[in-house]
Amino acid sequence: MKQFLAIVMALVTVPVFAQAGNVTVIDTNFENGIAGWGPRGDNRQGLEKLEVTTAVKHSGSSSLRVFNRTHEWQGATCKLAANAVGDMFGMEAWLYYKDGPAKVTFVFSTQKTSAQGQAYQNVLQVQANKGEWVQIKGEFTIAKDPTITDVQVYFETPKNDTVEFYIDDIKFVKLDPSLRPKAEVNIPNLRDKVPFDIGAAVSVDDVDFSSEWAQLLMKHFSIIVAGNEMKRDTVEPSEGKYNWIPADKIVDFAMNTGMRVRWHPLVWHSQNPDWLFKGAGATKAGLDQRMKTYIQTVMRKYRGDVDSYDVVNEVLDENGRLRNSEWLKIIGTEYIDNAFRYAREADPKAQLVINDYNLASNPRKRQGMYDLVKDLKARGVPVDAIGMQMHIDIRNPSVSAIKETIELFASLGIKVLVTEMDMSIYTSDTESKKTVTTTILQEQATRYRAIFDVFKEEYQKKNLDAVVIWGTSDNLSWKNDFPVPGRTDAPLLFDSKLKRKPAFDAIVK
Ligand code: 9MR
Questions:
Q1: With a 6 A CB cut-off, is 419 part of the ligand 1 pocket?
Q2: What digits encode the pLDDT tens for the residues 262-283?
Q3: Which atom number of ligand 1 is nearest to the Cα of residue 265?
Q4: What is the pLDDT of residue 109?
Q5: How far apart are CA 322 and CA 316, in angstroms?
Q6: Which end of the chain has fewer beta carbons closer than 10 Å to its terminal beta carbon, N or C?
Q7: Of the candidates 145, 179, 213, which is a domain's last residue?
Q8: Residues 332 and 258 in one domain
Q9: How many structural domains comprise the chain?
Q10: CATH of the domain at 425
Q11: Cα–Cα distance between 283 and 286 in angstroms, integer?
């Protein structure tokens, strides 16, 4: 049940619900009963209860009360529509709770059933204050996958809350085709305008050929990487039981469209399955074996298809020392050496990358990475490249700091990759939501251009290998709602309607 993929925040730029061509598929105000909504649990896992109540309402005289929840994934669910695959939807609903913590995160998710099982996707989230109604609203697409037999939509509180909550005024519409995002056709192909390979992070929904995101990917990008589907919690949810379905779909798409694939990541402290650091196998030797088996199972399966791996991800802390992760605590410093050695053994041709963030903005971390890789190289550990994630903002770090960092790392005789680039329009973790003005987008464009000029120069000097952007359209970025809930960001090259942004124009010019 707990297989969470990307949290996707959608921007609504037009009043979608008012459009004449929309078809309403769910419209429930609970004035006339429960109207197709039901619990997600069952007698075995615990059954939450649903009832229409007049005690609390957003409008009219009643709402739906969801109570007796014993799991955070429990909530209220409803079938989306008879033929939901391949369509784009707009949704809105109001949510409320009155007892429990001061704030609760409500998430709207989809559950797609096929012969292979169920796939869950967190689509939208909203943070609620106790005692205040809050609206959740946005757009989403159900990929045109003929194997899907049923699509359910549901509301849950997946961040460890089992509060009793209320829902009211739920509306889902199948969007008028003219309102759906469309990849622009008569514009330059980004991949032809930069000398290096240019990539994007995707989700499994993006790589369905019927999706406009797939059209955009094929036109502009030459590498893809999964934003989430190649993480161990998705790939190996229980020990030895692999779920290759999402990763396979992404790799197949690349193979069918002539793209390179990066794998992110093999060894990380985050997004791991619960069992990994637990039980009899979590000893020094046991965890090392769990690491080796995983690295080699993945790399042998994808040998020849995936050509670049983030072998270890985010192993440094902000002081530039080794992060005190479970890997370090249980195995010791040699886990990094071992990870690279196991990787090389499994696929001698693959590019093996050590990946981290804040390398250009934090001099201590930059130095820590330099020292670490220097030491690894001196001891013959097979590291091929340093991945600079490059989650930056509209002001910082400076273009010269980025250039100096690339050159410093390249001086070790290895390649540098930009692995997860995006550029927030906010310059602090506390700044509240602002309107995306043309001035901001222009400022962003100028900075994207200056940084891409550095990339080009460093590519020509053979220091830089490839650049990967962490997403396609702004509405799909992890930066929405993070780190400030309710704050929408615009860090990528395409807007939520898939239209190119000034940053795109500045780069291709
Ligand atoms: O983009 C990913 C987002 O959808 C996930 O919710 C998030 C959870 O950790 O991970 C995001 O990707 C991260 C990447 O795996 C590692 N570097 C930082 C990225 C942004 O958080």
A1: no
A2: 999 999 999 999 999 999 999 9
A3: 15
A4: 95
A5: 5
A6: C
A7: 179
A8: yes
A9: 2
A10: 3.20.20.80
A11: 5
